[in-house]
Amino acid sequence: MKRTKPPIALAGLTVSVLALQACSGGASPSTSGNASGGTAVKGGTVTVLQTTDFSYLDPARGFDGGVNAFYRLVYRTLITKAANDAADPNAMVPDLAEGLGQVSADGLTWTYKIKDGVKFDTGAPITAQDVKFGISRAWDPEIGIGAPYLRQLLATPATYQGPYQSGENPAIETPDDKTVVFKLKAPFPEFDAVLSMPSAVPFPVGTGAGTTFINDIVASGPYDLDTFTPGSTIKLKRNPNWDAATDTERKAYPDAWNFAIGIDGATIDERLIAGQGADVNAMAGSVQTATIARLQTPQLQDRVVKAPSTCLTYVGLNTSKKNLSDVRVRQAINLAVDKTSLLNATGGNQFATIASTIIPSNVSGHADYDLYPSTGNTGDIEKAKALLTEAGLPNGFTLTLDIRTRPVAQAQGEAIQQSLKRVGIDVKLNVIDAATYYETIATPSQQHDAAITGWCPDWASSASTFLPPLFDGRQITDKGNQNLAQLNDVTVNAEIDRIKALTDLAEANKAWGELDQKIMELAPVVPVNVENRIYLPGSNVAGLVAPQGDQDYAIIGLKDASKG
Question: How confident is the model over 317-332, as pLDDT tens digits?
Answer without folding.
Answer: 999 999 999 999 999 9
